[in-house]
């Protein structure tokens, strides 16, 4: 018998390329869902990974960094929070320049 | 106190009657006439007495006697009254009285008769009039009688307004409403034909009958509608009619609120209520009994839920504390304590619908979602928003991927879901067929570029069109991806074992076996000596039936899951606690399994399974409590 596949309508799921059990260190929600303010997951609620390798929902870390007392430190390890560029960058790129702005001020 | 002669004599002293022969004769006859004509002698005496002017005192005596006699009588019917009147009138044929005297006599007689005959003189209008009774009352009674007759004849006729037909209806409103109250359940059921009858009820319902109306309705509902023999869709239909009907009778909705409570309570306990409502809302088909719901959904609702408190006005006085007035769909929704149950059901239906789409045509579904939001409130459907958004994103991704890498075949498409927002996504894994692998790889590479930082994972959902070239025939099938992957293994080969199939596709044996048996059912494969062989010669191939869609996750497969996985838990539970209701068992199971993975069973699934175990003699069911068989 010869088998020909003429059409393929696959259904797949997506997830952020992070260890599956990891959740946002701030809101404790899976990265594949949204931060507490967003409705739609994915590009609208992207992730940010710091040089310290800690990951957060972008909105969560931005909110954190906006607080005076955060002193631009990573809430997990208390090192200065710097977003990683390039290969490991997650989500939209304009986000990172926004995060950068905090680092310059600090 | 009965008035006797002495009382009257105190007020009206009787004149003295002169005593002579003529007067004696005359008074003797008059007071004892016994309806006999006077003798010639008496007639002469009467004439003489009349001439002497002494007759009137005798008449007064007569009247006095008549009074005491009539007052002592007890009339049983109007004939007796008439006879009595004739009797006392009799002497007047032989006496010539002045007009005023005659009138005074008649007034006295008639007033006595009226006094004694009040209760039945109305039977005879003419006679009643003759003794001076007010006959308006009588006329009304007659009209009322004929109206009541008419009303009786209108039993079961609800499509004409009785009030418009008969103007005098004011007289027998209560009668009409009583009839309608007795018929209320049937009137409600035949809405909208019965609108005229309902309008009549609204117009004439006496405040004292409001409670009666509600009680009669709920009584009949409990007796004739709310029992195991009724179909849920009929009950929902009746509920819809109840809402509409009672809003006609009482536009403020208080009666409705009271009347609909038993139906609401009952519908709440029926397990298929929500699926039926959701199905009716989502799939408006003419043959669906509940298609009115879909029409209802299309109607624009003016008042968004959140604005209600701005137009607050006090509830009517007989409203219950949690009185609500709603439109049909909102009212159906409010039967249940949370909207969550609906949203869950909707997400299942939406998921099925969205995943069966070809080439991402989701606009129809999206429009339905907007309509639903208008009834359920904006906030409830976040999951569904994400689901629709996923389809839109998939469409964009698909377009971009094919544009960026033109070598990706147009025949390969992927829908990419946010897995946390879709209900019941299967977790089975498998490898796509070899022929698809390169394309999938290309697509995944593009996906990483289009959606940086994310990865894709295949599920067994979706569909594939496969073409099989056999010795003497070419067949085309639309199947699920695992089925397509399995049949692809038989490309130029035959005689494969289940183990081989499941290991080379990295597919669970259960899924592999199910998919293989699909091909056996289609007579493409046959199972012999533990191996699956291709049936190259398709002589006995059954006709038609080759356009199979994606096989939905069937109840049967779900319940085997409960059967194998959860039986030990249920058994342990019952060993410890002896007897439990299906709800308790469900919540225990939910607790035990929620940590490992989402417990994908509905209470109905669990109940079904429990009942299966009852038929398998593993459990006993007593008063809704499940027990282990032979457990003492």
UniProtKB/TrEMBL annotation, chain A:
Superkingdom as given in the UniProt entry: Eukaryota
Keywords: Cell cycle, Cell division, Metal-binding, Mitosis, Ubl conjugation pathway, Zinc, Zinc-finger
Biological processes, Gene Ontology terms: anaphase-promoting complex-dependent catabolic process; cell division
GO cellular component, one term: anaphase-promoting complex
RING-type domain residues: 35-78
Molecular function terms from GO: cullin family protein binding; ubiquitin protein ligase activity; zinc ion binding
Alphabetical list of PROSITE patterns matching this protein: ZF_RING_2 (PS50089)
InterPro entries in alphabetical order: RING-box_E3_Ubiquitin_Ligase, RING-H2_APC11, Znf_RING, Znf_RING/FYVE/PHD
Keyword Lipoprotein part of the UniProt annotation: no
PANTHER family named among the record's database cross-references: RING BOX
Protein name, UniProt field: Anaphase-promoting complex subunit 11
Organism placement in taxonomy: Eukaryota, Fungi, Dikarya, Ascomycota, Saccharomycotina
From TrEMBL, chain B:
CC terms in the record's Gene Ontology section: anaphase-promoting complex
UniProt GO molecular function: ubiquitin protein ligase binding
A GO biological process held by the record: ubiquitin-dependent protein catabolic process
InterPro entries noted in UniProt: ANAPC2, ANAPC2_C, Cullin-like_AB, Cullin_homology, Cullin_homology_sf, TPR_ANAPC2, WH-like_DNA-bd_sf, WH_DNA-bd_sf
This protein's record includes keyword Transmembrane: no
Pfam families documented for this protein: ANAPC2 (PF08672), Cullin_AB (PF26557), TPR_ANAPC2 (PF25773)
Coiled-coil zones: none
Keywords: Cell cycle, Cell division, Mitosis, Ubl conjugation pathway
Family classification: Belongs to the cullin family.
Protein name: Anaphase-promoting complex subunit 2
């Amino acid at each position: 018998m010869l088998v020909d596949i003429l059409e393929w309508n696959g259904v797949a799921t997506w997830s952020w390329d992070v260890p599956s059990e990891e959740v946002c260190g701030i809101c404790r929600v899976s990265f594949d869902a949204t931060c507490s303010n967003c409705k739609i997951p994915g590009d609208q609620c992207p992730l940010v990974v710091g040089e310290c390798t800690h990951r957060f929902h972008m909105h969560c870390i931005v909110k954190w960094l906006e607080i005076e007392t955060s002193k631009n430190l990573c809430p997990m390890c208390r090192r200065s929070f710097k977003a990683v560029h390039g290969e490991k960058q997650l989500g939209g790129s304009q986000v990172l320049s926004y995060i950068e702005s905090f680092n310059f001020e600090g | 106190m009965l008035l006797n002669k002495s009382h009257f004599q105190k007020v009206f002293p009787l004149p003295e009657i002169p005593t002579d022969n003529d007067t004696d004769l005359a008074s003797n006859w008059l007071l004892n006439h016994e309806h006999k004509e006077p003798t010639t002698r008496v007639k002469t005496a009467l004439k003489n007495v009349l001439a002497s002017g002494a007759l009137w005192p005798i008449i007064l005596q007569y009247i006095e006697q008549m009074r005491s006699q009539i007052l002592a009588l007890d009339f049983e019917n109007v004939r007796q009254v008439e006879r009595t009147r004739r009797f006392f009138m009799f002497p007047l044929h032989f006496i010539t009285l002045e007009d005023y005297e005659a009138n005074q006599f008649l007034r006295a007689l008639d007033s006595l008769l009226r006094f004694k005959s009040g209760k039945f003189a109305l039977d005879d209008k003419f006679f009643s009039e003759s003794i001076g009774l007010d006959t308006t009352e009588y006329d009304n009674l007659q009209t009322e009688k004929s109206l009541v007759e008419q009303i009786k004849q209108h039993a079961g006729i609800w499509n004409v307004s009785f009030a418009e037909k008969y103007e005098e209806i004011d007289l027998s409103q209560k009668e009409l409403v009583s009839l309608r109250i007795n018929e209320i359940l049937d009137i409600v059921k035949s809405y909208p034909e019965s609108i005229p009858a309902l309008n009549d009820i609204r117009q004439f319902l006496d405040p004292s009958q409001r409670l009666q109306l509600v009680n009669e309705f709920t009584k009949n509902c409990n007796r004739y509608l709310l029992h195991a023999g009724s179909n849920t869709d009929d009950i929902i239909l009746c509920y819809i009619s109840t809402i509409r009907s009672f809003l006609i009778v009482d536009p403020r909705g208080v009666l409705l609120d009271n009347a609909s409570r038993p139906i609401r309570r009952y519908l709440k306990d029926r397990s298929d209520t929500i699926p039926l409502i959701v199905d009716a809302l989502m799939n408006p088909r003419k043959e669906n009994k509940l298609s009115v719901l879909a029409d209802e959904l299309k109607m624009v609702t003016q008042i968004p839920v959140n604005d209600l408190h701005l137009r607050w006005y006090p509830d009517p006085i007989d409203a219950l504390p949690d009185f609500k007035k709603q439109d049909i769909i909102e009212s159906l929704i409010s039967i249940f304590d949370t909207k969550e149950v609906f949203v869950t059901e909707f997400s299942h239906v939406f998921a099925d619908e969205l995943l069966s789409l070809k080439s991402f045509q989701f606009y129809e579904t999206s429009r339905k979602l907007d309509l639903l939001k208008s009834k359920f409130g904006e906030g409830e459907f976040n999951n569904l928003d994400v689901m629709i958004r996923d389809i839109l994103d998939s469409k964009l991704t698909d377009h971009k991927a094919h544009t960026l890498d033109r070598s990706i075949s147009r025949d390969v498409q992927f829908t990419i879901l946010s897995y946390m927002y879709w209900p019941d996504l299967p977790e089975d894994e498998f490898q796509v067929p070899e022929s698809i692998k390169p394309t999938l790889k290309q697509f995944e590479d593009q996906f990483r570029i289009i959606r940086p930082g994310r990865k894709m994972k295949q599920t067994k959902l979706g569909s594939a069109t496969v073409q099989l070239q056999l010795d003497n025939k070419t067949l085309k099938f639309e199947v699920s991806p695992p089925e397509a992957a399995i049949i692809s293994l038989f490309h130029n080969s035959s005689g494969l074992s289940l183990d081989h199939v499941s290991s080379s596709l990295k597919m669970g044996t259960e899924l592999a076996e199910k998919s293989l048996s699909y091909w056996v059912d289609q007579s493409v494969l046959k199972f012999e000596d533990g191996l699956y062989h291709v049936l190259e010669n398709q002589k006995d191939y059954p006709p038609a039936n080759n356009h199979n869609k994606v096989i939905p996750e069937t109840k049967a497969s779900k319940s085997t899951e409960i059967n194998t996985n959860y039986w030990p838990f249920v058994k342990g539970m019952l060993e410890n606690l002896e007897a439990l209701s299906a709800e308790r068992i469900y919540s225990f199971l939910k607790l035990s399994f929620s940590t490992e993975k989402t417990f994908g069973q509905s209470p109905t699934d669990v109940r079904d399974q429990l009942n299966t175990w009852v038929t398998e003699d593993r459990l006993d069911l007593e008063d809704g409590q499940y027990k282990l068989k032979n457990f003492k």
